[in-house]
Amino acid sequence: MIPGVRKAVLSASPYVPGKTVEEVQRELGLEKIVKLGSNENPWGPFPAARAAMAEEIGRLNTYPDVSFRELKGLIARQFGLEPGWVALSHGAEGMLQTLGKVFLDPGDEVVLPKGTYGLYREISLVMGAVLREIPLGEDFSMDMAEMNKAITGKTKLVWLNNPNNPTGLALHPDQVEDFVRALPEGTWAVLDEAYGEFAAPGSMPGTKALLEEGRNIVAVRTFSKAWGLAGARIGYALARPELVTVIDTVSEPFNANRTAIAGASAALRADGEAFRTALDAIVSERERVSRALAAMGLRVLPSSTNFIFFTLPLDASEVSRMLLERGVIVRPCGGWGFPRSIRVTVGTAEDNSFFLEALSQVLAERKGERE
Ligand SMILES: Cc1ncc(COP(=O)(O)O)c(C=O)c1O
C-alpha cells in the first residue's frame, strides 16, 4: 500500500492489454507471430492518413490548434451534425475517462453489463462510484430489461457498449433507442460505438435523432478500429453542445496530438475508398472465419465487429497458451467470466488461415490426449 493514494484508486485493477508481438518474440523466440488479440486493423493506416502524419512531424515543435476546427467539422459532417456537437480525445479511452470525471461523484451508481469492455468498471471505481453489474443472458446478449430495472434515483451513468466487446453482439437499434428514451432525468447513457463501423449498414441506433431530441446520451467513437489508427490515439464523442463545452473543460486542453489530428482529418478527407476496401475485407473474412470455427464444432456468436467470440469445450486460457506457442496471439475471455471462450481479431486472410490451422492442430492434440 502506498501512503496517500486514494482509497477509490486502490479498488480498481490495472488494465490488462493483449500481448504484443515483441513480448511474445522475447518470451518464446518464435519467428512468425500473428497478433489477433487487440482488435487492430491490419490495413491501416490508410495512404492519405499516412502521408499527412509523416508531413505533420515537422510541426511537432508547436502545440495543436485546440479548436480542432477541421477535424470536428469532418466528423460532424459524417453524422449530419454541426461541429459544436463533437469533442475530441486521446482515443475513445480518453473520452471514457473524461466522462467518468464529468458525471461521477463518490457514491453515485453506474449500471453496466457484466462481460463488457473492462475500462468502464475501473473508471467508475476510481471515481468512487458503485457498480450495478447485470449478467449477460445465456445467449451472451445484454439484458436491457434488467439494465433498466437496475436504474435507481442514484444512477448517474449507464455504460452501453454496442456492438459489445468481447461478445461482438449488436443490440437492435430499437432496444437502444427505447432504453435511452426511458432514462430518468438524472441518468445518462454512454453509447460506446468503438466498433460501430463494422455493424451492418443501417443497424446502428439513430444517434443524431436521439441527440437532437435532447436525450441524455453521449456517443463515443474512435479512429483506432475501422480507421486503422490505434497507435495514433484519437477518438471522439458526439454530444449536445453544452455538454461538449463541459467535456472540453474537464479534459486536458491539448487532448489530441498533431499527428493524430492530421491523420484522422486526412483519412476522412481522402481515404474513403481504402477504408471501404478494408471494411469489406474484414467483413468477408469475419464470415469465413466464423464459418470455419462453426465447422470445427465450436459455438460462434454472430459478430458485428472486427473480432469473433467463440466457445470451446476446453479451458480457453490453456488453448490460448497452446496457440501462443504456435505464434498466434488471441484473447482468452476468463477475465470477463467466460473461461471457455476466446476472442479473436479478424486479420488478413493469411493471418486468419494461420490462426485456423493452429487452432485445428491444438484441438486435434487435445482430442488425442483425451482418447
Ligand atoms: C469497447 C471499446 N471502447 C473503447 C476502446 C478504446 O479504444 P481507443 O483505442 O480509441 O482508446 C476499446 C478498445 O479496444 C473498446 O474495445
The CATH topology of the largest domain: Aspartate Aminotransferase, domain 2
Which geometry do the CA atoms define?
Answer: globular
Radius of gyration: 21 Å
Uncertain regions spanning at least 5 consecutive residues:
none
Query: How much of the residues is beta strand, in percent?
Result: 5-15%
Helix content: 40-55%
Mean pLDDT across the residues is 95
| Associated small molecules | pyridoxal-5'-phosphate
| CA-CA gap between termini | 49 Å
The helix-strand sequence is: HHEHHEHEHEHEHEHEEHHHEEHEEEH
* Biggest sheet features: 7 strands, mixed
Number of domain modules: 2
The order of strands across the largest sheet is 2-8-7-6-5-3-4
CATH-defined architecture of the largest domain: 3-Layer(aba) Sandwich
Number of strands: 13
Number of distinct helices: 14
CATH-assigned homologous superfamily of the largest domain: Type I PLP-dependent aspartate aminotransferase-like (Major domain)
Structural category is alpha/beta
Query: What is the highest CATH level, the class of the largest domain?
Result: Alpha Beta
Q: How does the SSE layout of this entry go?
A:
Blueprint lengths: L6 H4 L10 H8 L5 E2 L11 H10 L12 H11 L6 E4 L1 H13 L5 E5 L5 H8 L3 E5 L9 H6 L5 E7 L11 H9 L6 E5 L14 H6 L4 E6 L12 E4 L2 H10 L7 H13 L1 H24 L3 E2 L6 E5 L4 H10 L2 E2 L1 E2 L8 E5 L3 H22 L1
Parallel strand pairs: 1-11, 3-4, 3-5, 5-6, 6-7
Antiparallel strand pairs: 2-8, 7-8, 9-10, 10-13, 12-13
Helix pairs in contact: 3-11, 4-11, 5-6, 12-14
Bound molecules: pyridoxal-5'-phosphate.
